[in-house]
Each structure stands twice: as structure tokens, then as C-alpha cells.
Amino acid sequence: MNRKKKAHFSFEDGVRAVRAGTLTPADVAERLITQMTNKELLWMLDGDVPLRAIITLPAKIKAGPIAAGAIPRLGIPGVQFVDGPRGVVAGASTAFPVTISRGATWDPELEEAIGLAMGLEGRAQGANYSGAVCINLIRHPAWGRAQESYGDDPVLLGQMGAALTRGLQRNVIACVKHYALNSMENARFKVDVTADEHALHEVYLPHFKTVIDAGAESVMSSYNSVNGEWAGDNKVLLTDILRDEWGFEGFVTSDWASGIHDAVRSLDAGLDIEMPLRMHRARELPKAIAQGLVSKESLHRPVRRILSTLVRHAAARDQIAPPKAVLASPAHRALARRAGAQGAVLLKNDPVEGAALLPLDPSIRRLAVIGALAVEANMGDHGSSLVHPPSSSSPLDGLREALPTVSITHVDGTDLAGAREAAASADLAIVVAGMNFDDEGERVENEEPSDTPIFGWPMNTLVVGWLLKKVARLISQFGKGGDRTSLTLHERDERLIRAVVDTNPRTIPVIIGGSAIIMEKWRHDVPAILMAWYPGMEGGRAIADVLTGAQEPGGRLPLAIPKDAAHLPFFDASASEITYDAWWGQRKLDRDGNRAAYPFGYGLGYTTFEMELIEHHASDADGVATVRVRNTGARAGSSVAQVYAVETSGASRVPQLIGFRRVRLAPGAETVVEVALDLSPTRERDPSSKTWSRRRGNWQLICDAHSPADFNAARPLYSDATSR
Ligand code: BGC
Asked: What structural domains does the chain harbor?
């Protein structure tokens, strides 16, 4: 926008007035709107990047924030967006462990600190808006972007997302995404996800509500369609539920470039900003206005929401703007390292000749590190959440740094004889195996381009096809990615693990990946397994910290690892239509009587704990459980007290997480802690009255270190045969 005559009342005047308590953010928005031309009002409703500049978008994203609705004449900054879930994608920022690894920390305090760090790094680069809060429930572990979310439990997703939001919003507005039911990658531009009112409100949306209740000021709609309407044009989602039912007062942006399909419909539905290009709205709205299809109020309403949110945020955020030196600062890298260790899940640590292999025996002299991934700083997919840290540490780097006096040999494992030889001559072998950005992640290439409506034109339209290919090439960051084609390791990795452990029983697989990996073909043959996820720029050091015992493995599974893909919900990566019901993950395993290989919430430390629910107080919606926790081992350490509600009158027991708390204790120490409870999993929503009430049945509470299978210690919560 060109500078015109000097404004009478600027955005900054408004921020000052809000801080002084003389105007509300809504007043300021109104005063700004009265000074805006129609063109300026329209300017606020989409990104500022012209469609023709699409080719330069990848470079812009890497360079700094992407603007939408900046109007210098009035001092309006617009939104200044930086992605994303594992760190700020612009500049040389800290690459934290991916979200699923942070979900495995079960530590909202740590997550809030990470949010603060990300917000500082974004703001230092001129951003006021972050796309980091991804909380889609992982309905199936094959979802290519599972790594961007905190797992598959609504309570865990909600609490971790709320923590990240609180941290971020001290410096930038948090954008919670992708609303809603976005948990398939390859088909994300075409799939219609159907969910009945119960599944929608009681399974797939509660965590969005939790994060919004925690103060999130923005929401991003998803690409897919929900119950027959594209999410970005979906009035039920964007107005009826989000605003009317939940009272959300912030603004909604679209997912990028094909997140809305009809400019007027999206506006009426309640979507405020089309991101990031001047596309549908810039093309269609002026005509629609001329035809009388868009009222003045329809234009003012979104602008009011955007401006009042921007003003409220600018007035409330931390007053001291961070310097660029916060990017990948020593403190932020230390945080990334700590999170990497705390998210690492020790799945197994059986004794070999009387002693567990982990933590590593300090008398080890020769170590074989095996696998091509051992020398990769494997930080996650190469999609929109790709971060470019100034340095990184691979597992081999981390081990060499931590164990300078140990002789460490590395072989990549492509030659099994060489791998055996390396393992045979070592005291212990570590096999690093798993996934990378080719196996899973966000994907821009589409196998069926003609099915994909992008930019309002069919994808096979020559010019758009050409543009997209060019962009995909330019963003050479994108690996193949997409949904996983298999839930197991690559066969070559399974062969490698077996060959190495056959040669040297002291073998520890360290597994890299963004979601559950089925391990049946080899897990019984190895004494120890560490699930490291994609542990970030300090990942190698974090893995070494855990292996050496400098840190305990703090992770607990944020989704169950099944024994068989057949135990999971139906998944069709190319589906055009799919129904999401209320049975997934650990709940589906429990209902169907299939034991997990490792249940939801599971993970070992280097010490042992006992925990017991001693009392609880609960109202309908929330409550507090009092839990006694004792460190029964010989080392200081932590565990996560997990409180589950379970209905016990039916044939199967399906525990639902309702609260958790990480507890750190010295060896032999005991403490009593309170765990805040969110009882929404025990409640149901009446679709006609939109009110919530207790589910019927005989409900009990239990505290355990993972999703329980034994309910002897359960205590009654309520028994209610009648309510509905
Ligand atoms: C992704 C979003 C992301 C956006 C901008 C889209 O492709 O789905 O998660 O925030 O790009 O980077």
C-alpha cells in the first residue's frame, strides 16, 4: 500500500491507548476502520504477496515473515507470519525436536519454555504471528505429518498445545492449526472427512477448545473438507462452533494457497484472512462487492477481528523486543537438547548377563555405531516446518563428543558383513535406524494433480501446473514425504538390526521417526530400544546424554505402538472420503482386546517408581486427584503420574487420560502431588441442545505410569445409569 496523507489515528496510537486503559482493542479497531478505504479493507483480507510472486515464496519464507494486511499509512503491521512447529522457519533459528517428541515429554512447563524461545526468535525477525501450534489428533500413525503434532490423545494434545501457546504469545500471536480433522497428507487437498457430532466434538475438537480457552488468538483452517464443506469455507466450523459455541474472539487464517475455494463463501463462513497470496479474494471480491453480494458489515467484521486481535496482542506482549542474538542462542540450544533427552522414550532395557545395557557402562572401550542415519542430523520432514539451524549434531557426533576416550567405529550398514564385523569387535553396538523426510512428512507433489483444486483453477491447467512444478523444484527442501507406506522399519533396517544383534547381543537400536513404528519382527530379539523421534539440532547430543546417563530418557509414548497395522483404524492415503469415528489408537486396541506392543503413556527411565491414587475431588467438568509417588530405585529421576478414567460396566475397559503430572524425585524419596483433571473424556455433548453431561455408566479413576490394563487399584468416580 502506498503512503497517503498522514493518518489521524494510527495503530500505534491505539496500542498506547489500550495500554493506558483509555480505549479497548475493539474501540481501536473501530477507529481505524472508519479511516480505511474499501481497498484497504479488502487488503486486510488476504496475504500481501501477489500471485505472480509465488515463485519467490520459498525464498521469502526462509528470509523472514510473510505479511498479510500491512497498511503503512495507518501504521497497521498486518500479520507477520512465521512457521512452524519445530522452530522458526526463517533465518538460522533453533531447530527443536519435532512436536511428537515434545509430546513425549509430557511436560507443559518445558513446552511453554520452548514456546517462549520460538516466540522470541520469531519476533526478533519481525514476526508477530507463529504457525507453531499444530494439534491435529493422529488418527493413524501413517499420517505423514504426525511428527508435527503431540500425539493422539485429546487431553495431552490440549495441554501441550496450550503450553506452547502461552509461551509463544508473550511475543507473537499463536496460530492453532489445522482446524479441523486434518490427519491425512497425500489426500489433504481433496479428502472429505465425515465425523458425526459426537466424534467431532468429543474426540477431534476438544483440544482445539482447550487451546482456545488458554488464550490462543488465531486459528488456521485446514485444506480438507469436513462433513461435505471445505474447512476454509465451512460456517459450521468457523462460526457456529468456533465463535458461537466456544466464544473465540481472535481471527482465522486459511491454510496456504488452496485453503479456501470460494471468496464470498469463505468470508460468510467466518474465515478472516486468505493466506498468503492475493488469489481468490483479490480476484473475486471486488466483483462480488460491485454485484452487491458482500455487505459492508461482511467486510468490517473480519477486519474488526484482525485489528482488535493485533492491537490487543501488541499492547499485551512483553515490552522488551528481543535482539537477533536470541536465534539459536546457547540458552535455546540447551533447551532443545534438554527436550530431545526428555522426549526420548526408552521402550526396553533388559539385562544382558545380569546388567541392563543403559545407561552405558563407563568401562566400555569400543563402541560400534551402525547405520546410515547415525551420521545424519535428521531433524524431520522437509515441508513447511523445515528449520535451518546454524549447526546440528548427528548421533555419531553426539557420541564422539560425549565419549572422547572410547574408540568408536561407524559403518553405514549397507554391507551386512561389515556391520557384523564392526559389532563383533565392539563392547556394544548402537544401530541407528528409522525414517527420514523421504519416508514421511509434508508433501507438495501430488500424484493426481487433476483432482486437486488449487488457486481456484483445476490443477491440470497448464500455467498452474507449470508454476507448481517450478515451485516444488525451487523448494528443493521438499523430500518425497507424504503418508508412510509402511508402519515398520525398512526391511534393510530390520535385517541390519537382526544381523548386528545376532553377532553381538549387546545391541541397542536407536529409532528415528515421527510416529509409531511397528517393531514385531525384531523387538523381542534386542535387549534395549530407544525411540528418539527427530530430536532437533542438538539431537545427537541429546541421544548421547540419554545413552551415557547424563540425562534419563524422559519420554512416555504419546501414542500406542501396536503389534499389527490391522489393529489400527482403516487408512487409505488416497481416499476422497473417509469417516472418523471415536475408535483409534489405544482406545481401539482396548475395545478390540488387542494388546499394544507398548501402550500409550509407556516409557522406562533409569529408576523405578510406584504411584497410587489416594483421593480425588471432581465436579462435572474438572477436578483434582491426589497421587502418592515414590522413587523405588537407586537413581534420581522422574516419571509421569497419569490419571485415567475408565467405564467399568461394559465388556471392555477403555481408559481415557484425564490428567497427568511429571514428578521428579531423589532415590527412595516419596511425595504427594495434585494432578489437575480434565473430565471432558467422561462427558458427552447433546447435539441438539449443545450442552454437555456425564456419560452413563460406572466410572472409575486410576493412576498409573501408562495406559492401564489392570484396574484393581481403581477408585469410584461416579455411577450414573440415567444421565444422557
Ligand atoms: C501447511 C501449514 C503451514 C503453511 C505455511 C501449509 O502447506 O499445511 O501447516 O503453516 O503451509 O507454511
From this structure: 11-326 (3.20.20.300), 343-442+476-567 (3.40.50.1700), 607-722 (2.60.40.10)
